[in-house]
C-alpha cells in the first residue's frame, strides 16, 4: 500500500536536520524559486493556475486564480499573507510541516510574491506554537543570511521581505479578514466583505491570503511543472496533500497522498483502528466538518466527493473515533471549543454556542429534558448561514451531523449520563495498554 | 448618481446606487428590525437582526439570507423581509431569541423601558416566549464609565454602536470591546480617551438600557414625558434639541434629528447643561437703603423707570449674547427709540472692538456658509477657532467630511490640540495676533472656507487681515460666535452705531459714574475684565438688570427684573450659518419675557416699543432677517493690518479659549459632566528655557497677580513664545510668566519631590 503515498511536502522530513537551509538546498530546495525568477510573473501565475492547486485551508479555492484577483494597476503596495493560524480541533498539518521543513514556506512565499508583484510577506503563525514560531523565524533568518530574502534575491533584481508574526491565541484569526485585523494590531474580528482582501486587505491594500500548505505546495509545482502536479488527484481536485490521521488509529500521523484517496486506504496505511476496536465515526476535515461514519469509508477524499457525501474536505484532519467514544461528549467538547473561540462580534455565534453548550452539558450529564434534541437542532438552525463569518457554520456542523447519525445517543441523555453509556476511560490511549498488559498477565 | 430599482416584499423601490437595502426598505415604509445599524454609522452587520431573504441578487441567482444593513441595493434585486418570507421571519425571530437569552427582564425598572428598540422589536419581531431555561450572564452593575455615564453590561446586546460612534463620529475612544465570545463586553480602554465631549450620544444611540446617563437614571418613564423640539441655547451651532419635561421639570435633553445642522448628535454641554434652569429669580428686586428688597412688578418697573428718567439719556444697554432675536429686538428698540442712545452692544465678552463691530456689520449680510458647504469644501481653514471647544457641531461635521469626503483642514492655532489631531488638521503654529499674516501665506482658492472664531476680535488687525486674504483668494468666510443669541442680536440692531459706545467703553464710562446701565442677562465673568466690570456696576449711577437667574450682576444692580427663562418662552436664534432656528416653550410660557418687561418699562417712560406681542416681535425679527439676506457684502478695510504679536520679542504670551465643559460655564451649573483635565501647553524651546519638566505642575502668572496651576504638556507643534492654558482669566496675547509649582511638599499631595 505504501505506493499510495506521494511525499512532496514531506519529502525531506526524515533527513537529518531537515529544517536547516543546507539540508533543504541539498534536496532541491530553492530550485523552484530559481525557476520562477527566470520566468515572467504572469507565467508563474499561469503555471500555478494550470497545476490545479486549490487552497488547503478548507475552502478549496484555486490558488492561482486567487493570485490573479490582485489588481496590478492598484498604486498601493501588494502583500502576501500566509495563514499558519492552525487552531482547529484535529487539524495538525502545518505544525509538523513547518517544524520539519520551514524553508518550504519561505520559498513558496517568495514565488507567490513574485507572481503577484508583492515585496512583502507576512507569515502569521498561531501564537501558542512558540516552537514553530521560533523555527520559522530561524528559517527566515537563514534565508536572509543566504541572500534568499531581502534585496536582489538570487541576483534577479527581485526584492522581498518576510515578517513572521505571532498570533495572540484566537481561532478566529484563521479567518482571513480577522487575521488581517489582528495583523494590523486591531481586535481579531472578521471584517465586512466587500471589499475583499484582494482589493483592500492588509492596510487597505491588495492582499493574497493563502494557507501555509497551499504556499508550501508551490515550489514543487514550479520545479516539476503544472502537468506533473495535475496528473495527481482527481478530475477537479488535483495534486497531493497532507492527510492528518489522529485519534483511535494504530499509527496516527501525516499521510501525504493524492487527492481522492479514500479513508479506507488511509486507515490501511495507518495500521487500522487501534487493535480490538471498530471505527464509529470520523471527521473528514476537522471538527467544523460534518462527521462521517463507516458508510463513508470509500468516499474519495477530494473536494467534490466529500461535498457530495454531505461534508467538507476542510483541512483533511481525519479525527478517528472508535466504538468506545460518546458522540455526545465529543460534540460537547467541540462546541465548548467554539463557544470559547467565538469572537463575540455577531449574535448567533456568541449566544448560540453559549446556549448549545448548556443543552449539550445537560445531555452529557443525563439531565436532558425531553425536547432538548429538537432544541439543539432548532438552535443550530437559528445559527446556520446567519452568522457574520463561517465559524458558527462550523460549530453547527458537528452538532447537526452527530444528531443525524446518533440521535439515540443524544436522547439517552434525557435519563443516562454519557459516562455511564461510554465509560470515558475506555476511549483513552492507556485503556488499550491496560487491556494488553492484563492480557499479557493472563498469558 | 445612477438609480437602481429593486423589489422589496413585491414593492418596487428605486434608490440611488450604493443605498443599503435597509434604507431602501425604510423609504417605502417597510420596517426591518435592527440594533447595530445606524444610518450615520458605517455598517458592521454584527447583530444579524436585519436578516432578509434574497431570492435574487439582481443577477438571477439567489443568496443565503443577508443582513439588510450591509447589503447594497442592486438593480432587479428581489428582497423578502419577514413580511413575505418564512426564511427571513425565522432568522429574525431566532436572532431576537438569542439576544434575549442573556438579557435581564428588568424592563420595569430600566430607563430605556418604553422607548427601547429591544423591547419594541421583541414584541414586533420576536416569538414572545423564550425557550431558554439556563443561567443568564450577569455582571456587577452599574459600571461608572464617566461622571455622567453608567453601563449595565448584562443589558448590552453588543451592537457596538457606542464603540463605533467613538471611532467614526467623535474620534474619542471612550469605550472598547473587551474579552471575547460570550464574555464580550463593553469596557473602558486604558489606552483610549478618558473624556469625550460627545459622550451623551452614547446613551442616546444605545438600543437597550445598557448605557444610561446618571442624571436621568430612574428619573422618569418615557411615556410620562412631554417632549418639545427646540433649539439648543448653549452655543451658536443651532442644534435641534428634544427637551423632555415631566410635571413642569425638565428631565433630560436629547439630540433631535436635523440633518442640516447636528444630524442626530449633540454635545454634552447641550445635552446636560440644563440643571441651571431650576435656579431662577422669582421676584423683582429693588435696592432700598442699599439693600435689595423684593418688590411687586409695578413697584420695580416704576423704580426702574424713575431711575432711568433721572439719568436722562446717559444710559448704555448691554444685552447678553443668549437672547432670542425677539428679545434682542426689544433691547435694540428700547435703547434707540426709548432711551435714544446708540450705546447698545450685545457683545458682553472679550474682543468687542470697533474693528470687530465693523467686520460684523458686513459679516451678517448676504448668504452664510452652511454645514453642507463645509462637507462639500475641499479645504477648511480655522482661524482663532477650536471647533471642538467652541462649536462642537462644526467639529463633528468637519470630522465627517475629513473621513468621508477627503476634506483637508488647516488650523492657525497656538498649539496642536486633540481636536485638530482628530481632524487630521495641518497645524500652522500661530501666536495670538499673528493669524492674519499666517493666513496670507496660506494657499487658498474658491473651494476654501475660512472659519474665523470670536477670539479673532480680541487682537487688532486679525479680522481685517483675514477678510483681505479671503477676498484675495476668492474663498468664503464665516464668523463663528460662541453664544446662541449673538448673531440674532447683531441682526436685531444690538451693535453700537455712530457715536454709540461698545461694551468696554460703556463699562469705562459707568466706572466713572457717567453712565447708567441696562443689562440683559450678563455674566460679569464673561467680560474682558471681570474685576473692572464689577467696579463699573458699583460706580454706575443706576443699573437695571433683566435676568432669569441670580448672578454677580444681581448683587450690584439697583433694580432686578426677573425675566422668563428660555424654557418658558418662544423665540428665534440665528446660528453661525446665519440661519434662524426656532425656540419653542418647553414648559408653560411665562409672560414676563425681556420683550414684555422692556415694553412695560417703555410705557412707564412714556414710549411705545411697538412690540405688543410675541407675534409682532417675531414678525419684525423675520423682516430684519429677510432684509439682511438681500444686502450684498461689501468688504471694507479701514482698520490697520495686524502688528506682530508680542510672542516674537522673547516674551511669553498667553493663548487661551473657553473649553466646552469648563466648570466656569454657568450653563453647566449642576451638570456632572467630565471636563478635560486642565493642562498648560508650551513648545519645547520655552519649556527648556524655563527649565520645566513635562507632567509637573506649572504656575502661569498673568497681570493682576492672579495665577493658574496645571500640569505641563510640551507640544512640539506649539507656536514659539506661546503658553496655552484653558479658560484663562486673561485675554489671548496677554504677557505671562511660567514657573514650576512650589516644590515644597504640600498636605494635599500636589507637587512635591519624588
In short:
Chain A is an alpha/beta fold and 443 residues long. In chain A, 44% of the residues lie in helices and 12% in strands. Chain A is built from 19 helices and 9 strands.
Any overview of this molecule?
The complex is a heterodimer of chains A (about 450) and B (about 750). Chain A has 19 helices and 9 strands. Chain A has helices spanning about 20-25, 30-35, 40-50, 65-70, 95-100, 105-115, 130-145, 175-185, 195-200, 210-225, 225-230, 265-270, 305-310, 325-340, 345-365, 370-385, 390-410, 420, 430-440, and strands at about 80-85, 120-125, 150-155, 160-165, 205-210, 240-245, 255-260, 280-285, 315-320. In chain A, the strands form 2 sheets. In chain A, strands 3-4-2-1-5 form a 5-stranded mixed β-sheet, with helices on both faces. Chain A has a 4-stranded mixed β-sheet with strand order 7-6-9-8, with helices on one face. In chain A, a hairpin with a 4-residue loop joins strand 3 and strand 4. Among the domains of chain B are: about 5-100, Ubiquitin-like (UB roll) (Roll), CATH 3.10.20.740; about 285-350 and about 485-630, Rossmann fold (3-Layer(aba) Sandwich); about 360-480, Dimethylsulfoxide Reductase, domain 2 (3-Layer(aba) Sandwich); about 645-740, Barwin-like endoglucanases, CATH 2.40.40.20. The radius of gyration of chain B is 28 Å and the shape is globular. Classes of the chains: A alpha/beta (about 450), B alpha/beta (about 750). The interface of A and B includes residues 342, 344 and 358 of A.
Amino acid at each position: 500500500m505504501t505506493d499510495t503515498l506521494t511525499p512532496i511536502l514531506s519529502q525531506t522530513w526524515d533527513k537529518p536536520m531537515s529544517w536547516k537551509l543546507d539540508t533543504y538546498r541539498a534536496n532541491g530546495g530553492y530550485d523552484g524559486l530559481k525557476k520562477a525568477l527566470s520566468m515572467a510573473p504572469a507565467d508563474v501565475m499561469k503555471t500555478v493556475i494550470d497545476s490545479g492547486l486549490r487552497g488547503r485551508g478548507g475552502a478549496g479555492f484555486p490558488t492561482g486564480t486567487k493570485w490573479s484577483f490582485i489588481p496590478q494597476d492598484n498604486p498601493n503596495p501588494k502583500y502576501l499573507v500566509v495563514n499558519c493560524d492552525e487552531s482547529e480541533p484535529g487539524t495538525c498539518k502545518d505544525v509538523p510541516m513547518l517544524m520539519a521543513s520551514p524553508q518550504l514556506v519561505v520559498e513558496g512565499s517568495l514565488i507567490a510574491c513574485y507572481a503577484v508583484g508583492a515585496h512583502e510577506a507576512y507569515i502569521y503563525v498561531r501564537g501558542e506554537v512558540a516552537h514553530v514560531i521560533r523555527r520559522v523565524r530561524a528559517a527566515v533568518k537563514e534565508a536572509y543570511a543566504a541572500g534568499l530574502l531581502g534585496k536582489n534575491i538570487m541576483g534577479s533584481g527581485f526584492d522581498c521581505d518576510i515578517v513572521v508574526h505571532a498570533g495572540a491565541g484566537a481561532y478566529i484569526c484563521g479567518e482571513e479578514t480577522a487575521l488581517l485585523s489582528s495583523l494590523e494590531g486591531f481586535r481579531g474580528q472578521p471584517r465586512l466583505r466587500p471589499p475583499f482582501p484582494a482589493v483592500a486587505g492588509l492596510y487597505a491594500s491588495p492582499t493574497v491570503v493563502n494557507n501555509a500548505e497551499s504556499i508550501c505546495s508551490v515550489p514543487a509545482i514550479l520545479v516539476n511543472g503544472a502537468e506533473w502536479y495535475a496528473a495527481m488527484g482527481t478530475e477537479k481536485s488535483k495534486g497531493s496533500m497532507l492527510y492528518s490521521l489522529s485519534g483511535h488509529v494504530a499509527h496516527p500521523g501525516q499521510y501525504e497522498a493524492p487527492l481522492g484517496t479514500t479513508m479506507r486506504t488511509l486507515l490501511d496505511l495507518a495500521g487500522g483502528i487501534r487493535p480490538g476496536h471498530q471505527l464509529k465515526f470520523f471527521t473528514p476535515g476537522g471538527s467544523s466538518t460534518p462527521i462521517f461514519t463507516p458508510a463513508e469509508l470509500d468516499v474519495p477524499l477530494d473536494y467534490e466527493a466529500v461535498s457530495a457525501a454531505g461534508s467538507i474536505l476542510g483541512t483533511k484532519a481525519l479525527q478517528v473515533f472508535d466504538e468506545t467514544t460518546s458522540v455526545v461528549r465529543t460534540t460537547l467538547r467541540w462546541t465548548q471549543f467554539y463557544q470559547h473561540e467565538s469572537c463575540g462580534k455577531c449574535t448567533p455565534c456568541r449566544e448560540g454556542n453559549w446556549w448549545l453548550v448548556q443543552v449539550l452539558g445537560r445531555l452529557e450529564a443525563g439531565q436532558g429534558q425531553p425536547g432538548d434534541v429538537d432544541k439543539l437542532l432548532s438552535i443550530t438552525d437559528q445559527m446556520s448561514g446567519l452568522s457574520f463569518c463561517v465559524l458558527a457554520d462550523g460549530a453547527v456542523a458537528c452538532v447537526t451531523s452527530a444528531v443525524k447519525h446518533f440521535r439515540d445517543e443524544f436522547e439517552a441523555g434525557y435519563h443516562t449520563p454519557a459516562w455511564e453509556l461510554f465509560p470515558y476511560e475506555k476511549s483513552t490511549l492507556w485503556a488499550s495498554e491496560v487491556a494488553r498488559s492484563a492480557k499479557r498477565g493472563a498469558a | 448618481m445612477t438609480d437602481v430599482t429593486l423589489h422589496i416584499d413585491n414593492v418596487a423601490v428605486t434608490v440611488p446606487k450604493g443605498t443599503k437595502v435597509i434604507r431602501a426598505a425604510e423609504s417605502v415604509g417597510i420596517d426591518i428590525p435592527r440594533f447595530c445599524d445606524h444610518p450615520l454609522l458605517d455598517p458592521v452587520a454584527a447583530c444579524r437582526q436585519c436578516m432578509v431573504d434574497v431570492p435574487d441578487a439582481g443577477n438571477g441567482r439567489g443568496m443565503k439570507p443577508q443582513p439588510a444593513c450591509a447589503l447594497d441595493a442592486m438593480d432587479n434585486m428581489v428582497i423578502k423581509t419577514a413580511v413575505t418570507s418564512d426564511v427571513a421571519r425565522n432568522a429574525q425571530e431566532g436572532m431576537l431569541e438569542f439576544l434575549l437569552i442573556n438579557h435581564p427582564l428588568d424592563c420595569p425598572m430600566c430607563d430605556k423601558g418604553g422607548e427601547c428598540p429591544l423591547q419594541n422589536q421583541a414584541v414586533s419581531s420576536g416569538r414572545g416566549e423564550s425557550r431558554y431555561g439556563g443561567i443568564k450572564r450577569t455582571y456587577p452593575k452599574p459600571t461608572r464609565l464617566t461622571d455622567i455615564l453608567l453601563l449595565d453590561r448584562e443589558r448590552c446586546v453588543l451592537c457596538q454602536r457606542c464603540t463605533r460612534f467613538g471611532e467614526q463620529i467623535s474620534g474619542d475612544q471612550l469605550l472598547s470591546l473587551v474579552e471575547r465570545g460570550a464574555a464580550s463586553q463593553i469596557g473602558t480602554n486604558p489606552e483610549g480617551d478618558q473624556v469625550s465631549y460627545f459622550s451623551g450620544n452614547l446613551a442616546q444611540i444605545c438600543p437597550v438600557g445598557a448605557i444610561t446617563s446618571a442624571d436621568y437614571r430612574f428619573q422618569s418613564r418615557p411615556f410620562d414625558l412631554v417632549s418639545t423640539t427646540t433649539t439648543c441655547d448653549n452655543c451658536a451651532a443651532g442644534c435641534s434639541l428634544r427637551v423632555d419635561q415631566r410635571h413642569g421639570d425638565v428631565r433630560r435633553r436629547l439630540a433631535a434629528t436635523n440633518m442640516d445642522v447636528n444630524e442626530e448628535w449633540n454635545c454634552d454641554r447641550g445635552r446636560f447643561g440644563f440643571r441651571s434652569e431650576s435656579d431662577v429669580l422669582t421676584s423683582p428686586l429693588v435696592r432700598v437703603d442699599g439693600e435689595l428688597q423684593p418688590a411687586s412688578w409695578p413697584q420695580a418697573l416704576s423704580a426702574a423707570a424713575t431711575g432711568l428718567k433721572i439719568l436722562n439719556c446717559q444710559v448704555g444697554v448691554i444685552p447678553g449674547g443668549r437672547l432670542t432675536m425677539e428679545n434682542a429686538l426689544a433691547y435694540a428698540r428700547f435703547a434707540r427709540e426709548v432711551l435714544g442712545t446708540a450705546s447698545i452692544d450685545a457683545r458682553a465678552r472679550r474682543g468687542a472692538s470697533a474693528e470687530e463691530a465693523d467686520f460684523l456689520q458686513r459679516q451678517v449680510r448676504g448668504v452664510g456658509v452652511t454645514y453642507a458647504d463645509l462637507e462639500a469644501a475641499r479645504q477648511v481653514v480655522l482661524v482663532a477657532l477650536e471647533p471642538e471647544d467652541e462649536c462642537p457641531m462644526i467639529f463633528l461635521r468637519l470630522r465627517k467630511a475629513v473621513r468621508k469626503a477627503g476634506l483637508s483642514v488647516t488650523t492657525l492655532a497656538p498649539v496642536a490640540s486633540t481636536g485638530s489631531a482628530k481632524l487630521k488638521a495641518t497645524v500652522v503654529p500661530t501666536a495670538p495676533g499673528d493669524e492674519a499674516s499666517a493666513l496670507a501665506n496660506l494657499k487658498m482658492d474658491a473651494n476654501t472656507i475660512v472659519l474665523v472664531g470670536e477670539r479673532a476680535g480680541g487682537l487688532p488687525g486679525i479680522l481685517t487681515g483675514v477678510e483681505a486674504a479671503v477676498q484675495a483668494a476668492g474663498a468664503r468666510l464665516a464668523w463663528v460666535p460662541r453664544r446662541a443669541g449673538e448673531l440674532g442680536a447683531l441682526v436685531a440692531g444690538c451693535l453700537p452705531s455712530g457715536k454709540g459706545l461698545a461694551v468696554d467703553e460703556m463699562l469705562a464710562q459707568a466706572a466713572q459714574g457717567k453712565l447708567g446701565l441696562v443689562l440683559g442677562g450678563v455674566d460679569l465673568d464673561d467680560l474682558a475684565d471681570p474685576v473692572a466690570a464689577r467696579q463699573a456696576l458699583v460706580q454706575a449711577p443706576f443699573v437695571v438688570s433683566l435676568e432669569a437667574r441670580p448672578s454677580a450682576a444681581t448683587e450690584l444692580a439697583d433694580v432686578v427684573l426677573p425675566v422668563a427663562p428660555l424654557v418658558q418662552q418662544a423665540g428665534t436664534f440665528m446660528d453661525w450659518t446665519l440661519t434662524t432656528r426656532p425656540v419653542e416653550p418647553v414648559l408653560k410660557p411665562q409672560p414676563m419675557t425681556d420683550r414684555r418687561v422692556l415694553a412695560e418699562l417703555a410705557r412707564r417712560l412714556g414710549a411705545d416699543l411697538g412690540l405688543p406681542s410675541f407675534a409682532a416681535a417675531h414678525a419684525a425679527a423675520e423682516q430684519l432677517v429677510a432684509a439682511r439676506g438681500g444686502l450684498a457684502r461689501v468688504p471694507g478695510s479701514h482698520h490697520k493690518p495686524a502688528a506682530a504679536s508680542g510672542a516674537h520679542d522673547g516674551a511669553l504670551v498667553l493663548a487661551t479659549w473657553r473649553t466646552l465643559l469648563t466648570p466656569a460655564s454657568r450653563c453647566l451649573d449642576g451638570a456632572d459632566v467630565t471636563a478635560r483635565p486642565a493642562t498648560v501647553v508650551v513648545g519645547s524651546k520655552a519649556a527648556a528655557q524655563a527649565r520645566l519638566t513635562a507632567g509637573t505642575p506649572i504656575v502661569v502668572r498673568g497681570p493682576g497677580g492672579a495665577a493658574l496651576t496645571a500640569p505641563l504638556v510640551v507640544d512640539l507643534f506649539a507656536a514659539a513664545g506661546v503658553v496655552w492654558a484653558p479658560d484663562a482669566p486673561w485675554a489671548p496675547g496677554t504677557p505671562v510668566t511660567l514657573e514650576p509649582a512650589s516644590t515644597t511638599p504640600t498636605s494635599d499631595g500636589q507637587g512635591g519631590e519624588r
